[in-house]
Design brief:
This protein is an alpha/beta fold. It contains 16 helices and 20 strands.
Length: 507
């Protein structure tokens, strides 16, 4: 890359050395979550400049982008924010077993706060709406958010209540992370009054909801739609009244298991299709699938396509028989030619990351379910998933609200209550994106990978980045995050990313 305004690796290295020196000087007196030698040592270990120099020297020609966006782009995020206690262990413990941690760290966490941090490091100006405690942990949360340039004007502080926190067990052997969350005070709907809503939305180009605080989030989402501000909703897992919030969404991003839990469909492809059908107001739906990449279902413009002229195919067939082989062929071709993909990102620890591949259908297709689908069985499975989600959330008597049964009866501005009358099938363009090219031994922790993906999607939407390019950027940012323990330390800045990844209509 030779884009003007971008740094060479030597310049990036010098900046990193200077930043780490400044961090060491600052943290001897200030730390967002406390002080003491153990805490300071944990922070110092993140400044692994020696490692960065050694590993990145193999690609010393890399140039990261140091050109900021020419105008301030405000995005709003509403949802979870708290503290993560991360314990890295060699292997997940059995019941009644004792073991020692390999590493223990305390960091800011929460889906929404993590995603906004990713967006801020990419160059956006995020505003966070949430509620935390008026305690020492809350002070640390605010301090960390400020360091990344996140506006916390609308972070409410609850006196007499603790800040939310999560215990996270990172299993190095199994590559998993297990989360046990303790919520704080509830953000009540009355606290989102018209004055606060107007202040929050002033100048916003996009509003993001992580699926929590749903009762208070719905009024903000409806106000955003009335002001023609696009709304993105994350559906990570079943939550009470989430369907009401999703009904207001222009864009949806789901986890791998959400579509099957929500619809009860046996196969993921059918579940993605059923999810999109239940949300006819959404322009597109992205489902992340971990190491299998991500699927994008994109609706055509209104009245832009006559479904009768389009071929009909199952989504399962498109993914497995067409797009999947295309991605595999692209990777195999590069391997056979011994061509390494261009470096798209260099992590703070010096790991070189290559961008993944993207494949899409030629135009729009009429999507059909697989044969043998059983809607009655799907309904039973959806009910069982809702009951399990309610039980895990300590809310067993409200299973119907987790499933969404009857939740669309009143108040939606999108008419999603009519979704049940829509004829089966959906017209859409299908895109399959692979994960980024990251060495397996470089993966330290997947905590917050989905949040970093969504933060990148926020950047893509806010800057006009095409959807395929947004998927590639999101995969690279998520991969970079996985090189460090926790949701935020591994998130890259613009200077760690190749300019081509960040190119947009707004520079």
């Amino acid at each position: 890359y030779s884009t003007a305004g971008c740094k060479t690796y030597d310049q990036v290295k010098a900046t990193a050395l200077d930043s780490c020196s400044q961090m060491v000087r600052t943290l001897t007196s200030i730390n967002p979550f406390g002080s003491g030698r153990a805490v300071k040592a944990g922070w110092f270990r993140r400044c692994r400049v020696t490692s960065m120099i050694i590993r990145a020297s193999y690609n010393s020609g890399f140039q990261g982008c140091d050109q900021p966006l020419k105008r301030r782009i405000k995005v709003v995020g509403m949802g979870s924010c708290g503290v993560d206690y991360l314990a890295s262990v060699a292997a997940y413990p059995r019941p009644d077993e004792k073991l020692r941690t390999e590493k223990l760290e305390t960091q800011g966490g929460g889906n929404c706060a993590n995603a906004l941090t990713a967006a801020a490091r990419l160059g956006l100006a995020p505003t966070l709406v949430t509620k935390i405690g008026a305690d020492g942990l809350g002070d640390g949360i605010i301090s960390e958010l400020h360091r990344d340039g996140i506006d916390t004007t609308h972070v409410l502080r609850a006196k007499g209540h603790p800040s939310p926190f999560t215990y996270i067990i990172v299993d190095r052997q199994g590559g998993t992370r297990t989360c046990i969350h303790t919520p704080g005070a509830t953000l009540e709907p009355y606290e989102m009054d018209e004055q606060r809503i107007s202040s929050v939305l002033e100048g916003a180009s996009l509003v993001y909801f992580d699926g929590r605080l749903t009762e208070a989030a719905v009024p903000l989402a409806r106000a955003a739609r009335l002001r023609k501000i696009p709304v993105l909703v994350e559906a990570e897992r079943l939550r009470p009244s989430l369907e009401l919030l999703m009904a207001e969404a222009d864009y949806i991003v789901t986890s791998a298991h959400f579509p099957q839990d929500w619809t009860g469909e046996a196969g993921l492809a059918d579940a993605i299709l059923a999810t999109a059908e239940r949300l006819p107001a959404a322009h597109w739906l992205i489902t992340t699938m971990g190491t299998r990449g991500a699927v994008l279902l994109e609706r055509p413009p209104p009245a832009g396509t006559d479904p009768r002229t389009l071929p009909e195919r199952t989504l399962e067939e498109i993914l497995t028989a067409e797009l999947g082989p295309q991605l595999e062929a692209a990777r195999s071709g590069a391997a056979a030619a011994a061509v390494s993909p261009p470096v798209a990102c260099v992590s703070a620890s010096g790991v070189c990351i290559g961008a993944g591949e993207v494949a899409a259908t030629e135009g729009y297709v009429r999507l059909a379910y697989t044969s043998g689908r059983d809607p009655s069985q799907a309904a039973r499975q959806a009910q069982a998933a809702a009951q399990r989600a309610a039980a895990l959330n300590g809310d067993p008597d409200r299973a119907d609200s987790y499933r969404g049964s009857g939740s669309l009866a009143s108040g939606t501005t999108t008419g999603v209550a009519a979704a049940a009358t829509i004829a089966p099938g959906l017209v859409g363009r299908v895109t399959l994106a692979s994960i980024a090219d990251l060495p397996k031994d470089a993966v330290t922790d997947t905590t917050g990978a989905g949040d970093s993906f969504i933060g990148s999607v926020l950047y893509g939407l806010a800057t006009g980045l095409p959807l395929p390019a947004t998927l590639r950027l999101a995969a690279v940012v998520a991969a970079c995050k996985c090189t460090e323990l926790g949701a935020r330390p591994g998130l890259p800045t613009r200077s760690q990313l190749a300019p081509a990844l960040l190119h947009s209509t707004v520079v």
